[in-house]
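Good morning,

Attaching, inline, the backbone tokens for the sequence recovery test we're adding to the shared suite. The designed sequence is right after.
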């Protein structure tokens, strides 16, 4: 009945090509933890610290999900390595079947920034399209069982110079190629 379409987590239909793009993103995810040096040799990123006073006992409060205010939680980070030219933030659901759901992808964050405030975007930062096809924070919507949500900050050796609302895959690829530092916090969301 749905030839060429796939039902999303919110009941909308999307073309199967979106699933193919998701598979490509999964391939890029394996690179996203590492930067490259020279001619593309993998380099382990320098560890960064990330935390949020909003995550109590490792839980994503309902306020930051589709069941609450639907706003992004505040995040703080430190330890960006020397040579950082910009930062990026990716929020995804590692519990999603087949490919991760990307809820928020922020890039070209000022390299001196150390936080994102609740419900806002750092000045000058840009947003890529998420898995829902919007360039905004798409509040996670845990359903059925617990989900693990990853909030990952990347230190990049360049600014990405992509447009606001850029497609997800080119932004992922650019982040993977430019990563020199990374910090991640994983929280649990309950249905």
């Amino acid at each position: 009945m749905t030839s060429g379409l796939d039902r999303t987590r919110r009941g909308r239909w999307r073309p199967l090509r979106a699933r193919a793009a998701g598979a490509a993103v999964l391939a890029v995810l394996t690179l996203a933890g590492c930067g490259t040096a020279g001619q593309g040799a993998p380099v382990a990123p320098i560890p960064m610290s990330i935390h949020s006073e909003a995550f109590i006992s490792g839980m994503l409060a309902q306020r930051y999900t589709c069941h609450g205010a639907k706003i992004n939680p505040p995040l703080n980070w430190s330890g960006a390595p020397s040579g950082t030219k910009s930062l990026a933030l990716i929020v995804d659901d590692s519990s999603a079947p087949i490919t991760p759901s990307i809820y928020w992808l922020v890039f070209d964050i000022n390299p001196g920034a150390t936080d994102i405030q609740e419900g806002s975007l750092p000045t000058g930062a840009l947003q890529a399209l998420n898995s829902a096809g919007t360039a905004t924070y798409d509040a996670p919507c845990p359903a059925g069982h617990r989900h693990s949500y990853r909030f990952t900050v990347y230190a990049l050796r360049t600014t990405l110079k992509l447009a606001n609302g850029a497609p997800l895959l080119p932004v992922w690829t650019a982040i993977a190629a430019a990563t020199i530092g990374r910090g991640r916090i994983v929280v649990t969301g309950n249905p």
